[in-house]
Amino acid sequence: MVEVASSTWGLARWLEYIESCHPGEIDLGLDRVSQVAAKLEINLNKSFVFTVGGTNGKGTTTRLLESVFSAAGLVVATYTSPHFLRYNERVRLAGKDISDQTCVNVLRKLKRRGPIYPLLTLSMEH
User: Fold this and answer.
1) SS3 at position 42
2) How many CB atoms are closer than 10 A to CB 76?
3) How many CB atoms lie within 10 A of CB 58?
4) How would you write 94-116 as a 3-class SS string?
């Protein structure tokens, strides 16, 4: 287990910490989404949230939806997993991967709210 989170950590250290928090089993259901949203004070009724699942085509479908909604003038945020080269690829805002500093800032805020791993996916979407 990595030492207690520090305000001086860079992205590489945060990613090491996240990996150490990963649960042994993955909950494939979506039941936790409302619980996490409530903890983060995110009102899912005020946002359009699409969950893309299945075996094949998730990345393509997500990018297609991103393109369509962006072309319609909406600001679109996406979270995908896993990443190919860099963790930042998972989170896109307005068509661009988030910066290292933005990612670190979000992770710091999440850590202050409690155990980080269950909060990570939903918060990155918002």
Assistant:
1) coil
2) 19
3) 14
4) CCEECCHHHHHHHHHHHHHHCCH
The pLDDT tens digits along the chain (126 residues) read: 445 557 788 888 888 887 777 666 666 666 767 777 777 777 878 878 888 888 899 889 999 999 999 999 999 999 888 888 888 888 899 999 999 999 888 888 777 776 655 455 544 544
Q: Write out 46-94 in H/E/C secondary structure.
A: HCCCCCCCCCCCHHHHHHHHHHHHHHCCCCCEEECCCCCCCHHHHEEEC
Domain residues of the chain, as ranges? 30-125
Q: pTM to 2 decimals? A: 0.66
CA distances from residue 52 to 55, 62, 64, 75, 76 in whole angstroms, order as listed: 10, 7, 11, 18, 15
Contacts (Cβ under 8 Å, ≥6 apart) of 86: 97
Residues near 31 by beta carbon (within 8 Å), at least 6 away in sequence = none
